[in-house]
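Hi everyone,

Forwarding the result from last night's run.
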Amino acid sequence: MKVLNSMNLPQAFVNAVNLEKHNEKGCYSATTLLKGSASTILTDRHFDEIEVDVADCVWQIWGTAVHKIFEDSGIDGLKEARFEVPVSHSKVTGRVDLFDEKNGVLYDWKTASTYKCTFNDFSDWKKQGLIYAWLMKQNGLEVKECRFIALLKDHSKSKAKTDSSYPQMPVYNYEFEVTETDLAEIENFIKTRIAELEKAELIPDEELAPCSEEERWQSPAKFAVMKEGRKTAIKLFDSKEEAESNMKALGGTYIEERKAEARRCSEYCNCNIFCPFYKKMVEGK
């Protein structure tokens, strides 16, 4: 990756950012499997062309620091252990933060936003934990439970006092038991995703299928009932027809379309300038 330093930050800051390739050729990590195939393939193909400003890497640095602190904390267990399993013509890999072999508990340290906890948005963490558990089972280790310990980077004590649905502490614990059904389902997910990636490796950029709506963090299009002189919507609807049929009763005067947004594509994908889906999305705005 090409490192930019638009704020002229100290070299120590630049050196703290890890911009090495996440995967070796033919290897896919647990976290990579959670991303869209197009994003993974494009990042690999254009890695040396992608530009990243170190000022945008603050949370990566913080996350690395948190992992380093826990790694050096003196806790007994299997720490930062790497596992790999051949799948088709590739390898699936994973590096676990801490495994309590005595109790069969797998720990993962996270830095996260309160949004994730408020909306109970943990499907990606569960898949990640299960991929680790599957990898470890293939290597003779049984994971009975996964525990994700999240440090909330934007926690507000004042909001916690007034909102019971808001995380009450700046640390959040997400845990689940690992079942045989879970392991069977995640094995199917792994094999399906590896098949997608191996197929995508042979397809040119312009023909790659886009990442799924879930992977793009796609919000659906909405139709807002508006009123002249008012900046905010009276009410949002999923279809134009529904908005039109309710407009009069709500006292609205016109309908405004709020187009679907792929937030990950526009704000968090480093390879978007090489992505055919993103290019079309920008052209259509």
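The domain at 25-33+57-204 is CATH 3.90.320.10 (Lambda Exonuclease; Chain A).

Cheers,
N.
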